[in-house]
Specification:
With 75 residues, this protein is an alpha+beta fold. It is 23% helix and 32% strand.
Length: 75
C-alpha cells in the first residue's frame, strides 16, 4: 500500500474514532447499507478505497473490512 494511502487511512480511522462512522466529507463517501460505509483514500489510477462496518450489537464498534484498490473492493 502506498504511503499516501496508509496516511489517509490512519487519518480516516482517527476521524471515525472521534466523530463516528458517517464521514460525509471524505471523497466519494457513501453509505452502502445500514451498517456499511465507504470512501476513496486516493483518486486516480488505481483508486484506493476503504470500507468499514458498524456492529450494531456492540456499542461504538466499527471495523475496517477492506482497504485496497477499487477494482478488488467487495461491496
Amino acid at each position: 500500500m502506498p504511503k499516501r494511502v496508509a496516511d489517509n487511512l490512519a487519518a480516516l480511522v482517527v476521524e471515525i474514532e472521534e466523530l463516528g462512522p458517517v464521514r460525509g466529507l471524505w471523497p466519494n463517501y457513501s453509505k452502502l447499507s445500514d451498517t456499511r460505509h465507504h470512501c476513496h483514500l486516493k483518486r486516480g489510477n488505481p483508486t484506493y478505497v476503504a470500507i468499514w462496518q458498524v456492529d450494531n450489537d456492540l456499542i461504538n464498534f466499527v471495523e475496517v473490512i477492506y482497504v485496497g484498490t477499487h477494482e478488488n473492493a467487495k461491496y
